[in-house]
Every structure is written in C-alpha cells, then in structure tokens.
Design the sequence.
C-alpha cells in the first residue's frame, strides 16, 4: 500500500532481527515489518519502506551496535538516518510503579513509538 503522507520508519534493532514500524508524522501506526540482520534483510527493509511511500527519516535505536550495519546500508542508499536515544525511564514513568516489562522496555513492535517521540522532542541526532 502506498500512503499519501511523509513517514518515519522507527526501527528497534536486535541481534537476530530488526523490527520496523512505519509511522506518519502524527505518530499513527501504518505498517510493521521484521527483517533479519544481514544485507538481504537491510535491502528487504529498505524496499518495504519505499513501497509504502515517501520516507522522511529512518529513526534507529542502536546505530552504534546492532543497528550499525543497517545504518551504514541506509546511509549508502542516500536515506536520512537519525539515532534515537533510549528514553529516560525515570522521567517517562515518574511516580508510576515499575512493572517488569517497564524495567526491560516495552515489547516489540510497540517500542517504535519511542522513535517518533524522540524525533518530536529532539532526543535524536543525525548520523
């Protein structure tokens, strides 16, 4: 499906797979994809994102670790890549009782909302 809006692709990086979520600039979840962490998976993710429409940026957690290869691949293709900082959990959940999933972080693919939040609140930087 081709969406008629600019999108941000939020990517949560892991050792074996990367989980990507397409969000419009208002933060609406449009689509999701899980791809392997190898060159074939990077190409799959890039082609998937392009099939959805105009990508404003790839917001990636972990560009210096599990997301390094993906970041290099996307930059080599001329895409805008930003690293999203891990949200400060104390600030995010101030006063809330910490449940086990809050301590580890939310399950995929929902944590990509933090990429959108990071871009809106300038908790990201360009690579």
Sequence:
């Amino acid at each position: 499906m081709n969406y008629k809006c600019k999108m941000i692709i939020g990517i949560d990086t892991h050792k074996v797979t990367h989980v990507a979520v397409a969000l419009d600039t208002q933060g609406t979840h449009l689509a999701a994809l899980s791809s392997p962490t190898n060159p074939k998976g990077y190409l799959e993710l890039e082609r998937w994102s392009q099939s959805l429409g105009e990508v404003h940026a790839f917001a990636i957690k972990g560009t210096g670790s599990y997301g390094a290869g993906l970041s290099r691949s996307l930059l080599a293709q001329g895409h805008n890549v930003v690293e999203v900082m891990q949200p400060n959990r104390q600030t995010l959940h101030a006063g809330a009782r910490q449940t086990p999933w809050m301590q580890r972080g939310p399950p995929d693919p929902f944590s990509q909302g933090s990429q959108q939040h990071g871009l809106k609140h300038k908790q990201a930087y360009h690579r």
Q: What stands out?
A: The radius of gyration is 14 Å. Confidence is low (pLDDT under 50) at residues 98-110. The chain has one domain: 7-118.
